[in-house]
Amino acid sequence: MEENKDKPTRRGKGESETKSVSSETNDEVQLEERTADSKCDPVNDSLDTQLSGKNDKSTEGEDETISASTACSHRVMAEFTLVLTGDPNSIEIGSENFLLHHDEQTNVKQFSNKLYDLCGRQICVINMLGLPNVDKIPLNQAVHAFILLIPNGQHSSHYRSGIEWLERTFGKECLSYVMTVLTHKSDEKCESALADLKANHCFVEERYHTCRRSMMNVNEIIDILEKIDVMVSENNPQCHNLLMIEVNEDQKTQDHTPHKEETITKAAEQMKTAAEIQQKFNQAECDVEDSEKNNEDTAEQPEIKPGPCESKETAAEQMKTAAEIEQKCNQAECDVEDSEKNNEDTAEQPEIKPEPCEPKETAAPPPIFGAPGSSLYGLSKESAVPTSTYTVEKMETGSEIKLKCDPPKEHGDAEHSKKNEDGTAEHPETKPGHCESKKKTGTCEMDLSGNKQSKILTEEHKKEKLPEETEILLCRLHLQDSYQQKMSPADFLKIGPPVKQSNETCEKDLAQTFCQMSMMLDYRARYIPARQDGSEVSQPEVLPESDSIDTDDDDAFWANTEDSNQSKQAHVHPMDVQMAAFHCSDSFLKQNMITKLSQCQYALPLLVPDPVSMDIECPLWTFRKITKTWKKTQGDLKTVTMKSMPVCKAETPLVSFFRLGSLSLSKSQLMNTLINDRHSTFFHRNCPGSTKSRHLMDGVAEIAWYCPAGKPTDSFTDCVAFCNLHGDSLLIEKQREILTEKSSVIVLLLPTLKKSEKSYTVVSSLLNATKPLICLITDSDCGAIQAKPGKYKLGLKDRSQSDVSEELKQIIGKILSGPHTTFQLESLGISGIRVDENDSVCQKGKSAAMEIVKMIEGMDISKIKEKFLSCEGQLWHNWCRINKELYHLKGNIEKEKEQKKKQLMEIRQKQCDASCSELMKSFTKSLLNLPSKDKEYFLKWTQILIDGLSTDDLSSILQNYDETWSKVLDLKRKHDKSAELKEKQAELEHLSKKLQSATFGLEHIFREMGQIYEAHKSQKKQTGSRHTDWVKYPELAADVMISGYPMELMDGDAGHVPLTWISSLLQEVIKKLGDQRVFVLSVLGVQSSGKSTMLNAMFGLQFAVSAGRCTKGAYMQLLKLSEEIKNDYMFDYVLVVDTEGLHALELAGNTCLHHDNELATFVVGVGNMTLINIFGENPADMQDVLQIVVQAIMRMKKVKLSPSCVFVHQNVTDVAAVEKNMDGKRRLQEKLDKMAQLAAEEEVCDVECFSDVIAFDVQKDVKYFAQLWEGSPPMAPPNPSYSESVQELKNIILSKASNSTGILLSHFSSKIQDLWNALMNEHFVFSFKNTQEIAAYRRLEVQYSNWTWTLRSEMLKIENQLHLRIVKGQLDKIENSHLSKEMNKTYEELKKQMVFYFEDDRDKEILVQWQGQFENKIKEFHEEHIREVKRKLDEVIQQKNARKKLDNKKTEFENKLLQKSKELAHQLKDVVENEEELKEQFDSVWSYWVAELTSDIIPIKDINLEEDQFNVLEELGTEWNLIMKSREEGKYKELSEVGNYFGYITLMKYSRVGKALDFVQEKTRLKVSLLTHDDQEEIRFFINNVEQESLKAIQTKPVATQGYTSTYLQEVAKNVQKKVTEFESERKYIFKKEFTVNLLLYVFDRATSWLLQSHKTYKENNDALTYLNSKKNEYYIVFKSYCKGSSSAVVFGEMMCERLKVSAVEAVIDQTAVDLAGEMRCSLPAFNGNRLNLEKHVLTSLAEKEDFSKYKTYIQNPKKQVEAFIKEEAKKYIFTKQKEKEPKILKKNVDDINKLIKQALFEATDKVKKQEGNIDMWVKVFSSSLNNKLTLDTIFCQNFRDINNFDFLKEKLEKGLKTVTTEMSRLPLDKVMECRQTPDQILIDQLCNCCWERCPFCAAVCTNTLKDHSPDKHNVPFHRPSGVSGFHTKDTVDLVIDFCTTLVGSDRNFYPNRDSKKLVPYKQYPTAGDPLASWRITADESKLTYWKWFVCHFQKELEDSHNLKFQGKGEIPNEWKRYSKEEAIESLDEMCKQ
Fold it and tell me: Each residue of 459-517: pLDDT tens digit?
């Protein structure tokens, strides 16, 4: 074709040509041909769309589409089109992000695209982050790469979901264009991510990249583009075409008028030939650009460009007009019935199905199922199709072409199938609309806005060609996508909106509702009333009226009028819904569905024709999980035998029913009477919802089993299978033949036959065969006749169905009583039909499972676990037993504990050695290596095959158990106490144990995995075992749990929670899903009360419920919230915990009671909500359960857990009786109140009723359930009322859950550990430790430290400023209100921070309990700090006022000194030239000047404290020798740290005995102490208390303002002596004199430093001599200046510089101290946390130094040691570690002061010059400009009035200031530490203002950051052996080696104090009262290695310090001596994490 030069072209990497034709109706047809290269035209379509403006609809017919040339002129061409998909959290959208930025908010929303210049390349980026719903993607684009963004840490799960979404949305082809980009934070490492992805997925490393989430690094983006370049070059084609049709909401709501569509058999009659059509369409392939612009504006026909076949002809000559097409469509409306029958079989050209085009306002239909409208082509379920579309369809031959005009049609609006006069259904009309079954290749369609839509079909779609009526059906049920993308169990294993209980369900929801109700065991799922889409629900249907009936014309009434409602479409047949759901499900969902249908006692599909190929398939896989149980009656004695086996293996008779021809009698209904006449096992025509039109049931053979109950009323004595072949079996030959071969009895329903009929031949062959045959003749009234052996006939005419049924039962029973063949489901695999299990993926899973089964096949089932699962057997049980014994220690508990720990480790080692069984290796190998789908089959097969093996043995054991139990009962009734009874009881016990060991399932294998993992994990070094895959076990189990399997939480056999395994498992779940919030729902009730059944029905779960398999222990299963309801809840998942029952039969007496209490506490504690399941109406059972439950809930309340509960009362006789229910609720409330009172007595708390314990509304929180079965098992179906109740209960649960935030998975893991550890200790309330709460509190403590530091640092700044103002004389009074105002801004901001923290923290639910307390604490701290600062400043004011006398003399002193210096200078000016001589001259006269000035002033003397102390002691009557001895020895300095005070006391009554003891001790060197540890601690406490009180008394004295006097010491000494006397009066001993002397010296020594410093301050402020001497240097400089002849300005400047220097240095070092303290607090790990963190670093420091003297100080006086540690660390930081930091801080502060002074100089000089002021004015302005940051001693200016050149003065001052600044910058560190408040003291004030209470048992100090933290109890994780503090066994010298954390978990007792006569169990230590009651000490098995190492390392020093020995019961265990210092320090970190 010659190309027009003016024609605009559009080219990318290839070329494309576009032509268009237009019709009179303005409907356009666009046909597009593209080569492979032309598909890579990037983003033009989408950019064209953006430039085109509004479409046709928005402009009422006006077409504003811009031509290609216009578009090109308005945009830059993109090289690449990239689609961003994946997790939105994987990328940080920002202004510098290369791929997504939001400067203009242009590319943030989904589906938005934007052109970027990336590194010089034009890239179009489309944002599709968030994996959006495919229904809403409005794109039509060619894409070069899909960038899948996955976040580091969750990469595996996000990669899997992302790939699944891409495949589901764009088809498998798009996977070739995927580039995976793993994003990470800047500080994250992601090296292992690639290995993880390669290990778990089919992954291509070359198409993988990592980058930061911010995407701001240009190199990373360049690397991505380079990899994309390589990928594009490798791909062919190089880009992937998206085709997305945006749903037009306007079209959805328009007219629903149906349109006729009819098919024509011969295309030649309609359109002549296909070649003719091809020619016409070739003519239409022309350019449309020029015509498009004027298409709507002109009435003329647009010009049609000549095509390749014809030259210049008009468009009318090529295609004529659209009206011509319409005419051809109208011609197609012909007879279709005959053509339909041969539609699929003919080899002729396909029929042409044109149809009249409808106006634009007609609503658009949904896409064709399986056609290009499916998700593979990017079309959503509800995507709109163009209003009028012409399609060229190229058939496989290439010559067959079909023209189709698709009229718009509303979804589900298919026509009724036509019916014959007899009411039978004909084949429905062919509807070539959306449900078009013909597959198209290369079709191009155009929608109303002119957008091209290219559809390319794959070979897969060509093969999956469904019959048209099936497509229509699937469309109506909204299953069109599900036939290709099968539904899976995951689609239903989630919590969605409640199943609607309305009268009618929309057709589109039928399949979903059916599946949901089936999962709920509601057999009404098959009878769901439906309404067609678009019809109103609320309005009842109005019956049509006939206009033709005359009121007087009776004949007209009987006339056969046309159905006025005939246009209304028939509703979907219920069995079509079932089979459609069946066909659209994957094999696992099919299996679940069939299993549930079996439980509903429904017939199951046995032979199913494939909807596409019509091949017969046996879904054998779906039957694998079904087990049938029945009781067989045999023999004359009617012996009953119970049988239970998988239905696939059951060999039973098979009775098959066939229908020949069309009959009025229902075969299915007749069969139901044989099986269960109260339940429609087989669906029949009289069932609700039945219609004559069905599509998927003909040819389906259904099977059901009759299972006798072993009663006389049984229809049959053994299990019998009944098979029903649906449809006319004459036409279904293959299925009939298969069933004939397999059947034991054949039953035919037929009319009387003639020989000429085809049916006659079939019957004849059956009559001549050996199979028993029963013919039921519908038009005969004869009775049952045996025509010949095995051949019966029975007439049905005028016979009641019950009579026929009874006769038929007799005949079948007679036949089956004789020899007969049996049928087994598994035998169908060799019948020449397709069996689903033969699929390769299923076989792979089976073969892997068979490897396991072959190992155990033929073995005694009770021996399997012993041989192959040895880790979970006796070894694990022994471990659990010994572990529990750790909480019941007696005697030498530490030694005993170490021995038991050693035993535990030995057992773990044995488990490691035994962990290599072939079964476990094979199982884990399959889990590790199999692909995902194969693995799923493997797990199912393993479960099925193992269950199959154990079922037979279990049945046998149960049978024997039942018989033996019956004999035992008989013997007991006879009061027979013979040996036979004991023998039978022993046999019964043996059978009970055998029954437990015979229970073998998949859960036991996972339990073994858990034990292998725990065993290896407990060994610090990996064992030499070859079994090394154990580290991957938690990940494997996590995958299985996430996929929907329940995981064992508590081992029911051992009665133990494997904490290590559960913790690791949940951690892996968190890695895969993220730390999601879950709502934990647990269930509690008596054994066999239907708990698991209820949960299974409620959520569609798979908890084991079969006979002999009651739940043991506890299992957990994850359920995701569906997208529909996710936003209504504050959590993402529900974690269901199913538990074993209370009152287990195998437990008895106290064991059962203890177990029940333990289980109930655990279950109630672990759940956010607990379902309390009460079964039956037995008050005694109810009372036992309620008491256990109430006590468990009460325990939760006492440990601040808040569970909720709902009571479920099952198996109530009449749930409908409201009055009875009300009475039942009243009685329940009364019982709960009574149980609450009883439990309160046991738990010691004040409770009057149940509502005091937990929020409970008996009206809302109690649900009554009907009995589960509707009749008597085994043939009874579930009760529909039960399912309704389950649904209502589910709604109640979700309603309550909507107010809950749930719990994070990580918190749930911690909670399990806490609960179980507390339960092990028996006394739950006292030993419960909420790890998560503790962690949250510790983080809050860190925040509290930060908040208080913010206030403290700000207040220090304010204090420094006010201090300067006071010194300058600007303030003489400080008010609290002024300080509050100064602090207000900081305080208000801090309060906002606190509110934000408490409201936004992830643990806000936990933190809320402390919010008020901490807000009050911050308020108290703020107020207390203000008071403290006011006190300090008041002291400064007092000192300022005290030195007023001196201040008044300063003017006189300065004037005289200045004058004298000036005079002396004039005298020596020309005489002395040497500066040294000048200095000598000045020094010689200075003393005379000072003496002259102070001649009338008495100087203040220094004090001699040592002499005063000696005099005070002598005045008290103390001997001089004793005083001197005490001073020389110096023992008094460490008086508070003495280990044993026995040497300081004298026993009052037995003083001689004391002397004798001293003599014995001296001679025998035996160290004996008559003081208990409590006595020792009392003395130490007394010493510390006296010291503190004395210091307080001294510090109240006005020493700094009024001076020191010795009377202060006298007062203190008398007070100390008085305290000693009072202390002795309450004791049985008195102190020796040397103690009193040492105590006084100790107090004096502590007070010395304060007295000296205060006196120094007093002297500096008030002594004129001191003041004058401080001015010597200043006046020497003045003197020297005058000697040099300097002017007054120079002298004045030098004086100012000297005074500024003093002030500036003080200001700089004060601020530097504050800044250094802040720097250290941030930089030093010891200082930037909470009190616990500081304690850890103190202990670490002590261990590193190994200095016992420091340890001794820490043990005796921890606060003193902590303060010493802070000082040491601060000194080390400032002078050693960070020596360079201090100069930087100092320089910054010097610069700040320098700027301040320069600014003040400028302001003062400038103002004086402008106002022509004098020097007085200059000084005043300069001083005020210093902003209260510097003090400046007043300079009296009368001697400098001659200064008038202020610029010169400014210059001199600036010059001098440089020198001052340099000197300040070089200040030594020692000078910096001379500030008013040193950095270390600031830190001590901050860090030591906390709790210092000490543990009553071991004296460890409380580590709470708050000083007064009531009501929170004292706690410390660093408890230690009591002997460290000197505790010893009474009346011995044996130090105590026990940890108090071990003691509180033991069975030992103690005396609360020396006078106690009643022993208190350590486990109940809080009952001993204060101080023990105020402590929380939890049993942690004394894990802290630190103190064990300390005791061993410093054993001798400790013994010498306390004069006691580690011997006897206090002997140090050998295991302790193995610990190293490094291990000791590491253990501190471990304890801090707990």
Answer: 333 345 678 888 888 888 889 888 888 899 988 888 888 877 666 788 888 888 899 88
Radius of gyration of the CA atoms of the chain, in A: 48
Give whole-number Cα distances, 271 to 20, 276, 350, 438, in Å: 22, 8, 12, 18
Q: In which band, very low, low, confident or very high, does the pLDDT at 1178 lie, cut at 50, 70 and 90?
A: low
Query: What is the three-class DSSP state of 1412?
Result: helix
- State the angle between helix axes of 1607-1625 and 1633-1662 in degrees (0 to 180), rounded to the nearest 10: 150
Q: What backbone torsions phi and psi does residue 570 show, to the nearest 5 degrees?
A: -65, 145
Mark residue 824 as left, alpha or beta (left: phi above 0; alpha: psi -120 to 50; beta: remaining).
beta
> CA–CA separation, 642 vs 326, rounded Å?
72
Q: Which amino acid is residue 1402, in one-letter code?
A: R
10 Å Cβ neighbour count for 1648? 14
Helical (H) or strand (E) element with 879 = helix 874-885
The secondary structure of residue 1481, as a DSSP letter, is: H
CA distance 1290 to 1287: 5
Residue of 1684, 1704, 1673, 1707 lying closest to 1853 (CA atoms) = 1704
Task: Determine phi and psi for 455, rounding to 5 degrees.
Answer: -120, 120
Q: Which residues partner with 446 through β-bridges? A: 452
Three-class secondary structure of residue 1094 per DSSP: helix
- Pairing of β 240-241 and β 142-143: antiparallel
Q: Which two tokens stand for residue 107?
A: 């590319």
Give the three-state DSSP class for 1263.
strand
| Chain position carrying tokens 């002017």 | 1687
Strand-strand pairing, 1960-1961 and 1949-1950: antiparallel
**Do residues 1567 and 2003 touch, judged by C-beta distance below 8 A?**
yes
Question: φ, ψ for residue 920 (rounded to 5)?
Answer: -70, -35
The angle at the Cα of 568, spanning 565 to 571, to the nearest 5 degrees, equals 125
What totals of helices (H) and strands (E) does the chain contain, helices first? Answer: 67, 41
Phi then psi dihedrals of residue 1052, to 5 deg: -70, -30
3-state secondary structure of 1605: coil
d(CA 482, CA 580) in angstroms, rounded, equals 10
d(CA 1430, CA 1426): 6
Question: Residue length, the chain?
Answer: 2034
Tally of CB atoms within 10 A around 1054: 21
Structural contact between residues 1482 and 1676, judged by C-beta atoms closer than 8 angstroms: yes
Task: Tell me the pLDDT tens digit for each residue of 776-812.
Answer: 998 888 888 888 888 999 998 888 888 899 999 999 9
Q: Cα separation of 1669 and 1885, whole Å?
A: 35
Quickly tell me which residue has 């130490």 as its tokens: 1580
Rounded to whole angstroms, how far apart are CA atoms 772 and 1136? 52
Q: How far apart are CA 205 and CA 222, in angstroms?
A: 18
Taking the CA of residue 1640 as centre, how many other CA atoms within 13 Å lie in the half-sphere pointing to its CB?
A: 31
State yes or no: pLDDT of 365 exceeds 70: no
Tokens 């539904």 label which residue? 487
Q: CB–CB of 393/402 below 8 Å?
A: yes
pLDDT above 80 (res 570):
no
- Whole-angstrom distance, CA of residue 637 vs CA of residue 1035: 57
Q: How far is CA 83 from CA 131, 138, 149, 226, 270, in A?
A: 11, 13, 10, 16, 46
Residue 781's contacts (CB-CB under 8 Å, 6 or more residues apart) are 795, 796, 797, 798, 799
Pairing of strands 178-184, 208-212: parallel
Distance CA 571, CA 476 (A): 10
What is the C-alpha separation between 558 and 1122, in angstroms, rounded?
Answer: 55
The two most distant CA atoms of the chain are separated, in Å, by 165
Pairing of strands 785-788, 791-795: antiparallel
Contact (Cβ atoms closer than 8 angstroms) between residue 128 and residue 107: no
User: Cα dist. 1739→1421, 1538, 1722, 1770 in Å?
Assistant: 28, 21, 20, 17
